[in-house]
């Protein structure tokens, strides 16, 4: 994302009480999104659920979108690092499994659906969601870079396009066609992306 951390509400992360306040507010934000979606994200109610003064929440986060943006940054920071199974096939399967597990988790799946829905009509929320995925793709790009170094991929393969190809079918099922992605779907998505990459689909 283009904004500097100091310019975005809620992104300062000093220790002590300030960090505890941020954690409590983001936990309350996540619970609210999971239970009622973006329309239910009321600043006063989040403050009450977090046990934090309303003035503090309005001053630091500014709006419901500010809460969502900071929640996405926090989720990116807390996400698991990229897998290193020793093969590209194994790494892509791990990536697909992680995406599927997140989308089918009763709480996290609901949070992502709520944020994706909000991003469809709110530009700031869309930027925050895009920033989250850019961060995650960049963190996983190393699996393709390692594979290229091992000779498993054509030179110049775009790691971000490869990773998008793994997760796209799973998001389509979960968000567009409203189907719950299965482990078999995750395996298929990883295998299809790997076959396409080996054929040069993501190389110049």
Automatic annotation (TrEMBL):
Domain (HTH tetR-type): residue spans on this chain: 19-79
Where is the DNA-binding region? 42-61
Give one GO molecular function term. Answer: transcription cis-regulatory region binding
Keyword annotations: DNA-binding, Transcription, Transcription regulation
Q: Which domain of life is it from?
A: Bacteria
> Sorted alphabetically, which Pfam families does this protein's record hold?
TetR_C_11 (PF16859), TetR_N (PF00440)
Q: What is this protein called in UniProt? A: Transcriptional regulator
Naturally occurring in which organism (per UniProt):
Streptomyces filamentosus (Streptomyces roseosporus)
